[in-house]
Amino acid sequence: MNKQMKIALTAIVAFVSVYFGCRKDPVSEKKSLAFRTNKLVIIVVDGPRYTETWGLTGRPLIPHRSEMLREGVLCTQFYNNGYCFTNAGHSAITTGVYQNINNSGLEYPQNPSIFQYWLKFTGSSSSKAWVIATKDKLEILSDCLDPEWQGKYRPMTNCGTAGLGSGYRQDTTTLRIVESTLSLQKPQMMLINFKQPDAAAHAADSLAYIQGIEDTDNYVWQIWQQIQADPFYRDQTTMIVTNDHGRHTAGHLDGYVSHTDTCDGCKHIEFFAMGPDFKKNHICSQPHEQIDITQTVAHLMGFRMPTANGRIMTEIFK
Ligand SMILES: [Zn+2]
Ligand SMILES: [Zn+2]
Description:
The protein is of the alpha/beta class. It is 36% helix and 15% strand.
């Protein structure tokens, strides 16, 4: 090869590597400048009242989260400003829109979800996004009725005993499935639902309600331990712990047993988050609401959600 050919070849190689180097991953290039988060897990503890979680003096029922706050962020004024039911609360989180949706799993959300937007944006396979829920009816979070999105970019699901219409299972089963999915499938987006303490409260079993708050606190801790023990997730994963709704304020209607309306007990919920991009040991007392999770997740993961309402919770970022 003569000198001119060598120069030409070198130029071609340089062009190709620069071209493909830039073209290959513009998102992660951009993201790497902004956020370290590239995986995200949302855990929805179904229906505890704020006065039994973070609002209880000394936080005796959530000792793990209370300890984890040293590495995380708590919003003390966080609300479901939409409909205080399970499917409405969950779909508000995943779509960023409050919708008075059927609560039995008979209706899909109108708007596309964080999973659909993320799968479309990244071109990832569906096994990289999961909805894992004790309640079978939450399988509706995997799709929507928007004709542009319906049936497309759907996350994988593992809900209830055997999918939509099959009934609830045990939260311990959900925890086991979460653990195996994280280790085998390596998803980058996941929403988890635990049916307790909600299911015990509806049965008016106050001891089991309290136990459900303690148990789910333990599950949150176990999931975070697994995340931080795995090099694929460690220091690049955001975990958000929240609720779909609270329960009636003590003394209002049947108190902790039910939830339906706009009393403070039903609306006031938890927002706790940990991850490489959040402040540590930080308590945010500015008012925020459920649909702010959606925009905050999209912002962290580097995509936009024009159909979602809500606002990015910028003050909790480092
Ligand atoms: Zn619920
Ligand atoms: Zn209420």
